[in-house]
Amino acid sequence: MYDYHVHSTYSDGSFLEWMVSSAEAAGLEGIGIADHCSVIPDENAERRKRLLGFNLDATYERRREAIDDARERAGIAVFDAVEMDYHPDHEDAIRTFLAETGFDYAVGSVHDLEGVNVHTRSYFAERSEAERRDLVDRYFEKLVALIDSELFAIAAHPDLVERNPHLRGFATTDHYERVAAAFERSPTVPEINAGRLLDEYGEFHPAPAFLDALVERGVEVTVGTDSHEPEEIEPRATGIREELDDRGLEPVEIDVR
Q: Which domain range does residue 162 map to?
């Protein structure tokens, strides 16, 4: 099993070498270092990038040298990947960046609504129920656009809104069916993401009903623990293995450059 989605100190994770060695100790066959990156030419996006220090667009070559060093020591595959913020208005900027940088593969993510990260509870708590329903609808519209863009090998945590209690529960069967249909016609693959398996949310992405819709259409999935610390990799990978076994699913391997 390959874990295509972990983070290092080149965004908001831990030391790259520690992440690789922990993946090897967990019995994984490979690990993808997919640090956050944004090239969206938008004032809010650029401000968030400055505040968070997500500067992989400027540091990816330095990180690539570190990945090469890790590959020499590791007994598993180590992939040079990226998790890109997606916005349908800025596909050209993303496409150009990915063509110029030549990552092994790219993971696409919808992280924000109205220019605000979906994790920001205070912002969404102040919205009415009708507004929150509309925002969740917009989230899934952006997700379908991400899939249809075919810019990415993997679509990360495809129901990220579930992590926010003020947005949770508004996703519908219609949302799931629309997204499942988009995946069915696209080479982009969704991941089973364990990024919140061990905390208060305690569920995978996609949620069970969403995964049911994907499986019914024959959509294949990849694995992404979305780990930021080395000690997270093994329990999250174990949880994903158990879920895949229960459903009789084999995760698909991504074609890398």
A: 2-186+207-247
